[in-house]
Amino acid sequence: MNQSAAIWSQPTPTDAAIASLVQDGRVHSRIYTDQRIFDLEMERIFHTSWIYIGHESEVPKAGDFQARMMGRTPVLMVRGRDQEVRVLINRCRHRAAAVVETESGNTKMLRCWYHGWVYDLTGALREVTEPGGYGPEFKFEDMGLSRVPRVASHRGFLFASLKHEGESLAEFLGGAAAQFDMLVDASPTGEIFLDAGVNKTEYQGNWKLVGMDGYHPNFVHASVVAGWARNAEAGIGAMHREDPFSDAALTLTRDFGHGHAMLDFRAQRLKSYSKHAAFLAKVPGGTQYVEDMHKAYGKDRAEVLISLSGDPHLGVFPNLQLIGNQVRIIVPVAPGLTQVIMSMVRLGGVSDEINTMRVRQHESFYGPAGSGSPDDAEIFERVQRGMQAEFNPWIEISRGMHREYVDTDGSVVGRITDEVPQRGQMKFWLQLMTQPRD
């Protein structure tokens, strides 16, 4: 048995074995296909890092809840009667049944339907059926639903970590934090609401394939890009008047560290600001929106925000993306199975017609019958099938290595087709997968 075969014959790969899978400009396909790697990702990434749970607007009233996943751990984002939003483990303290089975809703209490234990909205245990069956050592105050140890919010986006100690959310987000403003401040009142509906997709591929990739649109979405060009005077077409996915464009790729990355369309879309503003003037409430944005943020910043239309095109490692008119959650299920939850964004302080237009644009590309998401799911599945091959198993992510540079904000920058985001993601992935553990 050769050395490589020997280290991969172990039940749990060593840190050295994992480190051997990531090299300068390339990664081994095993990180996408190996069940042991996936199991370690659950333990070392999703059960220790900051994980995006949801937006506070998804639970506006007391008793509102959303059921989400942190790796293999089911959790509830729930608003209490005190208006505090908590993240609780969705697991009864008695015999471990999931307390909530529906994806969302409103409730006065949390009841386990196995044996009837009842918890309040803070997770405290309030009732036990046939309490006489327990002795004096049984303490109600010790048997509430477990709380996720750390919860923090940035501009309404709620993150949680199962690790009791570690870097703060601000430290984790770093330079990516400011990019949330590109979405939230697309509203003249600085308000967004994730109440416009959700659509989901599932593909037979690895969760890490959902990346910030500016190299594929002109190929995978060729017909869509051509349609944008033909409709350059209206809607999203105005933002793509010139090819934004060409190396000749002003669009960039950015790596902010911690695996966070961005396709930076700001300079490119700003070139078409006048065209986009002219389109908005045709939408009821559009002229007022432009005026309100200028009053709220000043001319220069307002023009950038209006040009972007609330699309920072930001990926926050490991499970959040802010793309188009959506907040996207990536849910790993297995090495070759991933779910994606897409929540449409409603802007505060704008006309219903503007929000309706944004929803229609979202549906046209990202909806179940849209022109974009089905293409992505198909290509991810083709990639996953190809990665099953053990012959020449290395995957190239070297594009643009020779021309990337560090910007004044500390981010690593490349052209739009460069694989800067992929390299940044894998650098942090390797750090988490091999860092010293308690």
Automatic annotation (TrEMBL):
Segments passing through the bilayer: none
Record key words, sorted: 2Fe-2S, Dioxygenase, Iron, Iron-sulfur, Metal-binding, NAD, Oxidoreductase
Residue span(s) of domain Rieske: 51-160
Cross-referenced Gene3D superfamilies: Naphthalene 1,2-dioxygenase Alpha Subunit, Chain A, domain 1, Rieske [2Fe-2S] iron-sulphur domain
Record has Nucleus as a keyword: no
Stated name of the protein: Rieske 2Fe-2S domain-containing protein
PROSITE patterns xref list: RIESKE, RING_HYDROXYL_ALPHA
Taxonomic lineage from the root: Bacteria, Pseudomonadati, Pseudomonadota, Betaproteobacteria, Burkholderiales
Keyword Calcium: no
Biological source species: Ramlibacter aurantiacus
Family per similarity comment: Belongs to the bacterial ring-hydroxylating dioxygenase alpha subunit family.
Annotated SUPFAM superfamilies: Bet v1-like (SSF55961), ISP domain (SSF50022)
Recorded GO MF terms: 2 iron, 2 sulfur cluster binding; dioxygenase activity; iron ion binding
A Pfam family hit: Ring_hydroxyl_A
